[in-house]
Amino acid sequence: MSSIRVLLADDQTLVRAAFAMLVESAGDMDVVGQAGTGREAVASAREARADVVVMDIRMPDLDGIEATRLLAADEDLAGVKVLVLTTYDTDEHVVEALRAGASGFLVKDTRPAELLDAIRIVAAGDSLLSPGPTARLIARVLRAPEVPAPSTAGALGQLSERERQVLALVARGLNNSEIAETLGLSPLTAKTHVSRIMGKLAARDRAQLVIAAYESGLVAPSG
Fold it and tell me: Response regulatory domain spans which residues (predicted)?
């Protein structure tokens, strides 16, 4: 298997250097570029053809959210995944990054092994969403509107009742195996449902499914 190509975007040189040493120590990934601003990150991702961009939210010139949005909008970079870094798991900008197309987020004080695992997860096309801090964060920021957003509410009408049930469980942070057990399905059937929902809602990954579930009012914040 080819190595995962990783681009590191952070305005702190020492932080980038530490992350670079960590990534290079893994046998299945390589650092293909570094960037100190969001604009540099976008340019470097195009040039280096990175698989995963580890993106700090707070950067000069162009912040990580806007950089993520530009990457997600570029059809030539459709395979590039963004893993957002934040100082605190209560940072409300994380939700905007997920809306913009990030595949998940990680706090900067995470353990080294967890960062490497996170890179592998998003490189494989999955999302780094846990039932704990991510779900609580989204629930707090995406307060269910009185009238669901037209775009997400309309798209929700394309889903079958079973698909709506699956989407609600995705939004609660359940993985495919847990969804299968909850609904009495096989893991393969649960995975198929998730894939079909992503296609119908034009979602890049599970992170955007969570956003769509809350914005549409399908799932309401639980306090």
Answer: 5-123
Tokens linked to 91: 């940072």
Q: Which domains does the chain have, with CATH numbers?
A: 4-128 (3.40.50.2300), 145-215 (1.10.10.10)
Phi, psi of 217 (to 5 degrees): 90, 0
Across the chain, which has 223 residues, the per-10-residue mean pLDDT values are 91 93 95 95 92 92 92 87 79 76 83 90 74 54 49 75 93 85 94 92 81 80 53
Any idea what the Cα angle at residue 120 is, between residues 118 and 126, rounded to 5°? 80
Spatial contact of 203 and 103, defined as CB atoms under 8 Å apart? no
pTM: 0.74
Query: SS3 for 124?
Result: coil
Q: What are phi and psi of 55, to 5 degrees?
A: -115, 120
